[in-house]
Amino acid sequence: MSGKISFERTPGGVPVLVESVPGCGSAGYMVGVRTGSRDERDGIDGISHLLEHVVFRETENRSSYQMAKDMEGAGGEMNAFTGKEMTAFYAVTIKETKGVARDAVAEVVAGPLIKEGDVELEKKIVVQELSMIENEPETYIHDVFSANIWRGHPLSRDEGGTQEIVKGLTAADLRGYYGERYGIPNIAVFAAGAVEPDEVLSWAEDRFDGLSGKKETKRERPAPPKAGHSFRKNRSEHYHVAMGFPSYGADHRDKAPLALLSAALGSGISSRLFQEVREERALVYAVYNMMEQHSDAGAMYTCMSCTSENVADALEAVARVYREMRDEGLREGELERTKNLVKGSLVRSMESTERRMYVLGRDFLLSGRPRTLADRLDALSAVTEEDVMRVAADVIKGSALNVSVLGRKDKAIEALISSGPDV
Predict the structure, then answer these.
(1) Per-residue pLDDT tens for 348-378?
(2) Catalytic annotation present for 52
(3) Quick check: 316 and 273 in contact, CB under 8 A?
(4) Which of 115, 141, 180, 391 is such that its CA lies 20 to 30 A from the CA of 65?
(5) Pairwise CA distance, residues 149 & 224, whole Å
(6) Cα–Cα distances in Å, from 152 out to 156, 309, 339?
(7) d(CA 261, CA 275)
(8) Among residues 8, 19, 40, 52, which one is catalytic?
(9) In terms of C-beta density within 10 A (0-12 exposed, 13-18 middle, 19 or more buried), how is residue 12 classed?
(10) In angstroms, rounded to a whole number, what is the distance separating the alpha carbons of residues 78 and 67?
């Protein structure tokens, strides 16, 4: 199951990373572009995401409808996503029709038409998407927390931008952004499943080596965030809360201990947060831990939802779990149990060609270092209790605690989060 990763470059300099998986019945191809919401200039917030939509509308050879028919007729699926630091386009089919996946991905990346009419149609769709996200508080709270902890830095921008700015973007704006960013040195090619390195390298050279001379994406590392709070008004009767700390980026040596610390705190129903905040005290409906990871920065935080009368007690209960982990250490058997939990989730997820390809691309574009499944499992196995506790002492600090709340306006709750619970 743990395939080998080949890493080569085309004559034009495009990185090509391939993870061949013996016995796999599907094949996936992805092109990642090193640009996202973090890399947008003021006034064009959301252009990366809008462009991701528009390139599917029509290419030099196919309409979006024809492309959809071809992909589904090949037993496949095609999609894309925009993040803070990357935009990616991918297709997965059964191995017998993998040429269809290659052609479709190449067309949307290398040959989109970006017509004015298509841009206007997609703007309407994206505005609806942004409105939908704002009305899904369990999702929107992540954007609210990210905007809070990275305030003053481009990482604080939502991937989708704002409705007002998106409405004002034009086809000329999108063509200019595409011309700047989509090509060498900002693109990389990834493939996983029933694929061969020589085949992928040849395809990448043929389809993408002509996209040279683009503006290289450059970034500034954010300063370590200080403690802060934010309150975002929402019509929901339920309050959604995110609280946590700046942590490590994809380039940090302690990624594995951090992942185990986060999981011990709040992954699964046996985790400390679920047991102590929900099961023992019934303060919340949902509570779990998250990690937000970028190339040079990251955050570890807890999300929960509860009624207004429980917000204060829930904040304090989570803070107490933080303190106990940092000050008293892991419990007997907790590290081994958490390692198996994380390993199990990782192994199951990597049975998906799509997931394997996403992880391959994300690793390379954020850290420059691809890792096989065996590499990841070995890194988790090597973590000691001392490693986890060193990371806990480094990350769990009251001086860096950030708290964000999404819900109906409430002066008492606003006052509460402005001081923050004691960590």
Answers:
(1) 999 999 999 999 999 999 999 899 999 999 9
(2) yes
(3) no
(4) 180
(5) 10
(6) 7, 32, 36
(7) 16
(8) 52
(9) middle
(10) 9
